[in-house]
Design goal:
The protein has one helix at 2-23, and strands spanning 29-32, 36-42, 49-52, 58-64, 67-74, 77-82, 89-95, 104-111, 114-123, 126-134, 139-142, 146-151, 154-162, 165-169. By secondary structure, the protein is mainly beta.
Length: 174
């Protein structure tokens, strides 16, 4: 009887550990075409992870008071933008939408089987959310002027970046 209980406990602990390891994996199917720079990859909400932007400012992913944020340190002043209430894997990229030389921040936050894609405009201590979409684990392609969102049946939505704003493109039949 004692060995059966021991075997059951060992089996349950293996299942628990494997499920925790699986939960730490990247689940999004985001493809970014063109020149991107990965600034930060955070694999936990307990540790603050930092990286540097091309302009020299420090970017940190951090969680406190029930929310997670991307924080940029600009001349000693912290600028924050919320990215959800939990993090399994969060990635921050610099990317130039529109080819105008201004780098936007792409943030992908994976948590428990789903992903959320954010795009932020950032310049000199001001951050503004331009785009937010829950992409689940569906294929999503980021191109210099577009974000393409796919469903299992194929291409679903195209978002066009024009003059600092994302516009949803819809098919029109005449």
């Amino acid at each position: 009887m004692k060995t059966i209980i021991t075997k059951i406990l060992v089996l349950l602990s293996i299942i628990l550990v494997s499920s925790q390891l699986y939960a730490q994996e990247k689940i999004n199917k985001l493809e970014i075409e063109g020149d991107k720079v990965e600034v930060v990859t955070s694999k936990s909400m307990t540790a603050d992870v930092s990286g540097a932007l091309s302009t020299g400012e420090t970017v940190t992913t951090e969680c406190y008071q029930g929310m997670c944020y991307v924080t940029i340190d600009y001349k000693g002043r912290k600028v924050t933008a919320p990215i959800g209430d939990r993090i399994t894997v969060a990635q921050v990229y610099e990317y130039d939408f529109g080819g105008d030389g201004d780098k936007e921040l792409i943030v992908v936050n994976d948590y428990k089987g789903s992903s959320v894609l954010y795009v932020f405009a950032y310049s000199r201590g001001i951050i503004q959310k331009l785009y937010e979409k829950e992409i689940f684990n569906n294929k999503t392609v980021v191109k210099p002027n577009y974000i393409e969102f796919y469903l299992p049946r194929g291409l679903d939505t195209i978002w066009h970046y024009y003059q600092g704003i994302f516009w949803q493109m819809k098919e029109v039949s005449f």
